[in-house]
Structure prediction request, 1323 residues.
Amino acid sequence: MEIGLSHYLILSGLLFAIGIYGILTRRNAIALLMCVELMLNAVNINLVAINRFLQPDWRIMTGQIFAAFVIVLAAAEACVGFALVIAIYRNLNRINVDEINLLKW
Amino acid sequence: MEGLGQWLYDHLLSLILWTPVVGALFILFTHRENVRQIRFWAHVFTFLPLAFSVYLWIAFNPPQMEMQFVETYDWIPVLGIRYKLGVDGLSMPLVVLTALLTFVSVVYSPTAIRVREKEYYALFLLLETGLVGTFMALDFVLFYVFWEVSLVPMYFLIGIWGGPQREYAAIKFFLYTLVGSVAMLLSILILYFHSEPRTFGMTELIEQQPLEGKGILQVLAFLGFYLAFAIKVPVFPFHTWLPDAHVEAPTAGSVLLAGILLKMGTYGFVRISLPLLPEGSQVFWAPMGVLGLINIIYGSLVAMAQDDLKKLVAYSSIGHMGFVMLGIAAAAMDGRSFTDPVLRDYKVIALNGATFQMIAHGLMTGAMFLLVGVIYERAHHRDINRFGGLWSQMVVYGSLFSFFSMGELGLPGLAGFWGEFLAVLGAFQLFAWAGLAVIGIVITAAYFLWTVQRMFLGEPKEAHSNYPDMNLQEHISLWPLAVLTFLAGVYPKGLLTIIQPAMESAVEKMTKVLGGG
Amino acid sequence: MTFKDLFILLLGPELWLTFLGFFLFTLDLIFPRAPKKVFGLLTLLAFVGGLVLVAAQVLSPDLADEVRQAAQENRLGYWLVTTFSLDGLATFSKGAIFIGAILIALVTVDYVEKNLREGIPEFYGLMVFSVLALCFMVSSVELITLFLAIEFASISSYILAAYLRGDPKSSEAAMKYFLVGATTTAAGLYGMSLIYAGTGTTYLYEMTAQFMPQLGETGVAFSPPLPVLIGLLMMLATLGFKVAMVPFHGWCPDAYEGAPTPITAFLSVASKIAGMATLMRVFASGFGPLSAGWVPILAFLSLVTMTFGNLAALWQTNVKRLMAYSSISQVGYLLIGVAAFSPSDFQTLLGMSTFQGSEMALPGIFYFLLGYAFANMGAFAVIIWVENWEGATDRESFEGLAQRSPVAAALLTLSFLSLIGIPPLAGFFGKFFLFGAALSRGLGWLAIAGVVNSVISAFYYLEVVRRMYFFPPRRPERVSTSLMVSSAAVLGVVGAFAIGILTEPAYQWAMAAFFDVVFAPNISFR
Amino acid sequence: MGEVIAFYILALIIVLGALAVVTGRNLFHCGLSLAAVLLAVAGLFILNGAEFLAWVQVLIYVGAVLVIILYAIMLSENITGERILLISQNRGVGFAAATLVFALIAFLGISLSGLLAGHTSSVKDPVLALLEGADSNVIVFGTLLLTRYILPFEFASVFLVIALIGALVIARTAE
Prediction:
């Protein structure tokens, strides 16, 4: 039995779908942030696997580079997300997004 | 001097068109407290276009069938959109009428308008440009631009200086007209995309007949234009905006609404729908005729039931515009009538009547609304039943009111007669049921006479014993209309020689397409 | 030309923005007591300078040749120009973005003085950097650069939206904005990975080159392979989020209402221009030959977006929120142009058939964007004008404005008339071109939906106009403002007028941009 | 065979961990499960020959991102003074959407590997000349980053600085 691209794609699809499930069901901002991280990891699995299986020359590692930039993005997003959580706390003292409803959701 | 005269002659239409905008700018840069100066500029910059347009009338060459005083400049060459102006026997009288009515409205306005005058006069001048431009434009995009430009100032005129229900009336007017114009926009675009070479020029498109034989597409394009024009006219059942707008608008606004804005619709039918989309017009000639008749009879019946003088005049407009629509329907009637030269002549007669009626109605209804304004300024109500015996109090007013009432009901010898007579005569020869229009004429006569009786005859009432007769401004604004109504009545030929070639040309263009069938 | 020259020529406006942005940060460190207005003026300088540099790029006649030359001689230069393109699409959008940014900077100074207590230098610095990000966005022709730019722009917007520290609405709006943004980003990235799987490259024009042969002589559009189509649609989540397209619009009303008003203006003008330009870059340029796959979807989304935006706007009582829904509906109109794209546009540009000026679809979008930017900026400048005085943006604050400040009322009315589409303002011609494009491409139903929506939109715009003109003023005193805000409003409206009347040059410029949408790679790659 | 076993073990960790993240009631535990997922993903990277990326994943993701998240959890619990209990809403909708997405991608995944034999670029990439003789993942990675991806690389550095400054500005306490 061989592990092929399909395996990786299905695994990443599963991870992505779980992330979406989390996005739709969770109400806590930090938890939502974690779900986004799950989705981003699904993307990275995809990119690395595609790079490996579809690019004959291993030195052209577009997918891996792409994935590295996605990690950079995840770091920046986490940073800003955290800052926003603190800002919301200071203003409202609550963190569940359905509890903050000054504006219609 | 020679050069200047020639230059004036070459740019006559642009001058008439843009002078009011210059005036609006002058007013915008005048301080709002300086009312005298604002009024002065308004008078000057409505008089100038009037003077220019009188010159236009004199310099106009009636027998020529083509457009005159044409000015063409490229505007958006990549799409073939041009700044193209021109007038013929159909549009020239309407341009003059617009200039005249705007001027008399401005002369009349100081007695009625006392607040926010700076905005008022600026908008009024802007409105004039929109109206004049609509009649002059020979490029569809330009036409559409002016069509919409005339909409915005009127919205504010009704909404700010109107009666108690003004906001409702203003928004209703705006939205109704906007619905029509966007439908027209789509039709214009359809025409453009079927033209070869691509053009928005009206005369070029009429020459090309891009939708000839295109069946359903021609019908759709026709319906797009129809919606726009029918709402403006207004044809039953699109008329519901009109009573609101007319009743709520300030007097001068009503004058322009009834005198000019309604004509934009009928002008569109004669200028665009008939020659450009003859097959589409032909499909709908009977509904147009029937709706015209409904307009005449329904308008008159409803007018008879009114106690509010302004509403009465408003509904009488619906009735009178029905005659125009009847004439247009006659011109649009189907193929057989195009092959027979006699019937074709009746088409021309009907169209002559329709166009004559546009002018006559503009003069007389404009005057009627001014007269309503005159009495309203004194009594602060318009309930006919609360007046009575006014004649003894206001002799000149009573005489003028009766004079215009006679004109409205179509007394031979006054302007109103010829339009209705020719339109019904022409239409009757083509389809006999047009004769039902006579019912409308009778009802109209009845309610106008009844109104005169209720307001002016009988015992003078205590409540209005101290009403002064008309003041100077009211005299200046009303007498020109009275004189012209009389002149057009006793010497209709003066107007008809101008109109006739344009109508012949329209029928000829339709015949070229439909004559074979 | 050396690499350095190329670098400066190609990235001139971006380098200038980076320099000034960091300069703003350091200036605050060195002179903590510097008057805050200085930062505002420096920001204005940054944007004006950017516009000048873009103009220099557009006007220098043989820049393209020089760039091509240098890129072929110099390896680093080569990699520079293959990720960062200086084509008509990029320069046009940058020009429009800078124009919008200048007007925004003008209205920001007063607003900041009135409403912000701290972090003012950073506020301006972040504004400069968001514009930088937008410039990158419209120039990237490679997916990695593109997504970084999009994220940069989004993240700085989240921060700017959260800037009203005392106002819980602001942080809440930013939080919602952030969560929707992060989710759509993840989806978009997943889509990009699928596109990468389907094409093996991240360069947009390599994708075009792959699909072109299939388009062939016939010019009939074909559907993309399934992974690419799905990837494209997932990418649409990110781009749709940026331009606030239904169904990715959820953040828009909240963010517009909660954010500081200049940032609202920024989101609705600069951000939207960049988003639309990128959308066109990806769909029309990268995947143009595949239009059979995405055109029906975009046509449908266009219908939904404009209808939803307009219907929802009818119920709004806060003018900022109303502008949010109105901007959603404007995106719907813009999408008509994208949906009216056809591969024949592609072919005309490749010289396979002759170009007709009447091919209005893509130039129409650019023209519409420009007109929309001016009119919207005029409107927002007046909203800030009123907000600075009244402290609120609900409809009641606008009552009787015509008598308290006739100029403000007139300017707002004209902006709204342009947004409704009344000629001769720019908004009319924008719609005219887009509806025309739809009609000429057999999307008559979309054109009809467009005009029906225009009429609906008149309701809510006129509701505000009604309150300004027909209502008595709530308070007698006049509403005055600084020269900067009023000149921004005047510039916005004059701009809307000017490109309405001078349609030809604006349309020509838009057409030049259109030519280069398809010719994305500005150097020969082979 | 070794790869097969490793893949399935890592996949199991990923899926179970992810499920724990989206269903757990204790936020702190969710964070720890996320750490497990991230580490397992790093394992997958190694499996795919992306050693350098795996290190990046461990250092940045687990080292930095996760720490921020855990810090956020503890800080917020500290501010409110109560343990945050997570609730899940709209489970049905979430489940349906997730299933739909998964089905779509899984279908793609199965069909895709047949559809695409491999990528052959028509472009003669000049970067290949530089990579002549390069034998380690790190060298290639670094070379690519500083040649072909020089612009995104520089851009990302500005991006990170600004994100940090921005985060500081909104998070700092009022003076």
Remarks:
- Chain C has one domain: 3-518.
- The CA atoms of residues 140 and 146 of chain C lie 5 Å apart.
